[in-house]
């Protein structure tokens, strides 16, 4: 009989231990072999000057290329592509908030988030892009080599081709798959949104185009400690790297059973409905807002951009209210770093539950929610002294759909016990276990993947 871990595992690459060792070597290369960090910052500043954005807020009813459907009220693109803003009717019978309706982005197409890697002087480097997005609060951020929706890379917008796309769509003898997995995105704002997270190694020469540069993993990890430099799409791809350290198979079976039990235990009913049927939200032609003034707004923007495939366009965006907290409690168990993971339900997930950080919330939203909805362990995160804070940084979420969506990512060392009978939705999971789960789809959510990338930047190889 084949055990659950074996059934889930993808076919191993021929030299999986070797790639893990090469990743570790790149992590330890803090100065890089192509350009130093000082030179990178000069290059990045020059890119920011060339690749500008001018984002003007405009009424939703005046978005060029978009229309409000006369029957449903859904906001749709004239091409029928890209995405739509629809309504979602959510029912969670056993939750503190058992039902609500909300606007949500429906983007069924699967995009590509890909990082090209290549050795220089025996050290793996990542080809990173200085990319501007309309929702970025600071313009240019460090992005994957390719970051494109299907509508973008099939050129529905009639813009320029996406650079380096062929490395991720075509196979050849000089290209090797390091990681290739579909992963979810924000389940509170997207309905069943997935992207293909890819890392492809190439051995042949690669022309470095304007706006791209080679960085070692050690350099990228250093930049993860600078405020709002490495974007969300880069973080999620980096989290899928096959770091060394295979978890114990019996513990993996137990973890998978716990996730399956959580998915079975939670009844979630999330049905798409016409946008004009959502309740508790106000729409005035300019924007869509919750009547409490909390959660998020749906706004319209007119974008002029340099360094993009298209120089001008309009679109709707989600604008969160307030700065969120993405907090992870961590501790060492038998010398191995463990994270307190939350088996979290979000209405937009494909499979009910994904592993989330210990805390994932915008604290001020809870002033209009029942006390039972308040996230456990938030006080442990926010009240931590400097000695217990291992990582603390402000990072943006995806700037292509979200306007100035900012979270405080923080990892806090703790010694607290978490009785499973009291907190059945929480569990200590080792970093090697999370790395193993990230080889598969829909186990670890986008916020957790971001903070896993940040934890790898702290730990190097010491915890594996």
Which descriptors would you attach to this protein?
464 residues, alpha+beta, Nucleoside Triphosphate Pyrophosphohydrolase, seven-stranded mixed β-sheet, globular
Let me know the number of strands.
25
Question: Distance between the terminal alpha carbons, to the nearest Å?
Answer: 29 Å
The low-pLDDT segments are 1-14
| Rg measurement, Å | 22 Å
The largest sheet is: 7 strands, mixed
Q: What do the pLDDT scores average to?
A: 92
Kindly estimate the percentage of residues that lie in beta strands according to DSSP.
Answer: 25-35%
Number of helices: 11
Task: Give an overview in words.
The chain is an alpha+beta fold and 464 residues long. The protein has one domain: Nucleoside Triphosphate Pyrophosphohydrolase (Alpha-Beta Complex), CATH 3.90.79.40. Helix content is 21%, strand content 34%. The chain contains 11 helices and 25 strands. The strands form 4 sheets. Strands 6, 7, 8, 9, 10, 12 and 13 form a 7-stranded mixed β-sheet that branches. Strands 19, 20, 21, 22, 23, 24 and 25 form a 7-stranded mixed β-sheet that branches. Strands 2, 3, 4, 5, 11 and 14 form a 6-stranded mixed β-sheet that branches. Strand 7 (123-132) and strand 8 (140-143) form a beta hairpin. Helix 6 packs across helix 11 (446-459) and helix 7 packs across helix 11. The longest helix is centred in the middle third of the chain and has 17 residues, at 249-265. Residues 1-14 have low confidence and may be disordered.
């Amino acid at each position: 009989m084949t055990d659950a871990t074996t059934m889930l595992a993808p076919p191993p690459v021929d030299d999986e231990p070797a790639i893990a060792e090469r990743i570790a070597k790149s992590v330890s290369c803090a100065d890089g072999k192509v350009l130093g960090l000082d030179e990178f910052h000069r290059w990045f500043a020059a890119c920011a000057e060339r690749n500008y954005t001018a984002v003007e807020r405009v009424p939703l009813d005046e978005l060029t290329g978009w229309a409000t459907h006369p029957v449903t009220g859904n906001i749709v693109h004239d091409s029928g592509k890209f995405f739509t803003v629809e309504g979602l009717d959510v029912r969670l019978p056993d939750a503190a908030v058992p039902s609500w309706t909300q606007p949500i982005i429906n983007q069924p197409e699967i995009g590509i988030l890909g990082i090209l890697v290549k050795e220089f002087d025996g050290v793996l480097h990542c080809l990173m892009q200085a990319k501007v997005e309309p929702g970025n609060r600071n313009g240019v951020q460090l992005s994957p080599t390719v970051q494109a929706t299907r509508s973008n890379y099939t050129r529905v917008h009639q813009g320029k081709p996406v650079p380096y796309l062929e490395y991720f769509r075509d196979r050849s003898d000089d290209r090797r798959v390091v990681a290739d997995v579909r992963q979810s995105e924000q389940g509170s704002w997207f309905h069943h949104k997935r992207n293909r997270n890819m890392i492809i190694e190439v051995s042949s020469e690669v022309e470095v185009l304007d706006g791209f540069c080679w960085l070692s993993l050690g350099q990228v990890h250093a930049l993860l400690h600078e405020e709002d430099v490495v974007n969300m799409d880069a973080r999620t791809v980096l989290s899928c790297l096959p770091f060394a350290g295979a978890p114990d198979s019996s513990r993996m079976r137990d973890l998978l059973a716990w996730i399956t039990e959580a998915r079975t235990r939670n009844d979630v009913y999330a049905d798409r409905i016409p946008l004009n049927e959502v309740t508790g939200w106000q729409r005035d032609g300019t924007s869509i807002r919750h009547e409490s003034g909390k959660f998020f707004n749906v706004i319209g923007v007119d974008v002029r951009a340099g360094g993009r495939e298209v120089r001008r366009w309009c679109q709707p965006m989600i604008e969160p209210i307030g700065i969120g907290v993405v907090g992870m409690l961590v501790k060492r168990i038998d010398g191995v770093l463990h994270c307190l993971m939350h088996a979290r339900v979000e209405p937009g997930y494909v499979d009910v539950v994904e592993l989330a950080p210990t805390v994932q919330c915008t604290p001020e939203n809870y002033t209009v929610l029942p006390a039972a909805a308040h996230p456990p362990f938030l006080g442990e995160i926010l009240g931590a002294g400097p000695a217990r804070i291992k990582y603390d940084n402000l990072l943006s979420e995806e700037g292509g759909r979200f306007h100035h969506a900012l979270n405080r990512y923080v990892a806090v060392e703790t010694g607290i016990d978490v009785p499973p009978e009291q907190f059945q939705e929480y569990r200590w999971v080792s970093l090697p276990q999370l790395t193993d789960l990230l080889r598969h789809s829909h186990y670890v959510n986008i916020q957790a993947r971001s903070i896993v990338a940040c934890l790898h930047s702290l730990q190097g190889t010491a915890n594996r």
